[in-house]
UniProtKB/TrEMBL annotation:
<dbReference type="Pfam" id="PF08002">
    <property type="entry name" value="DUF1697"/>
</dbReference>
<protein>
    <submittedName>
        <fullName>DUF1697 domain-containing protein</fullName>
    </submittedName>
</protein>
<dbReference type="InterPro" id="IPR012545">
    <property type="entry name" value="DUF1697"/>
</dbReference>
């Protein structure tokens, strides 16, 4: 048995309806996963499952989510070991926990696509690719940055963003 972290790209079903975390935990249980737990209300799930490849879990969760909620949502799954490895690679530990964000990718981000982001960066902002994931230090509120709106699936591939505080919170849940 292993522990996994699942990150939903979105929990918004319609403009006036979001998936509540109780329903997300129920979905995980329906799929046979054990001890599902959530962190904050933004689609962060930790659970135990038999030894499976993360991609198999992504497919099962995405199909289950679509069947239960009527909408496809990209879901990224990492094993506990790969999550802890991601935590150890933050290149911007000197940044603020709510301003340092990692875009956790399903497949490694294309370095050429990262280069194309650089003209959108403001003074003080930093980006780095580590282990295929894109790390960004917004050096201010991400919502006030031109860079944020460019970090899309269409531009970069399937992935989802979490700030450093959330990354650490999930790590604490699996320790």
């Amino acid at each position: 048995m292993s522990m996994f972290v699942a990150l939903l790209h979105s929990i918004v079903l319609t403009p006036d309806r979001r998936v509540i975390m109780e329903d997300l935990r129920a979905l995980a249980e329906e799929l046979g996963y054990r001890e599902p737990r959530t962190l904050v209300s933004t689609g962060n799930l930790v659970f135990e499952a038999d030894e499976m490849r993360p991609h198999e879990l992504e497919v099962a969760l995405e199909e289950g989510f679509e069947e239960k909620f009527g909408k496809h949502v990209d879901i990224i799954v990492r094993s506990d070991c790969t999550w802890m490895a991601l935590c150890s690679t933050n290149p911007f530990r000197d940044g603020s926990g709510d301003q340092v964000i990692v875009r956790v990718m399903r497949l490694p981000v294309d370095p050429a696509k990262v280069e194309a982001l650089k003209p959108l960066m403001a003074e003080g902002q930093r980006i780095a690719v580590v282990g295929g994931d894109l790390w960004i230090d917004f050096a201010g509120k991400p919502s006030q940055s031109k860079l944020l709106s460019a970090l899309t699936t269409k531009r970069l591939g399937v992935g989802t963003m979490r700030n450093w505080n959330t990354v650490c919170g999930l790590a604490e849940m699996i320790m």
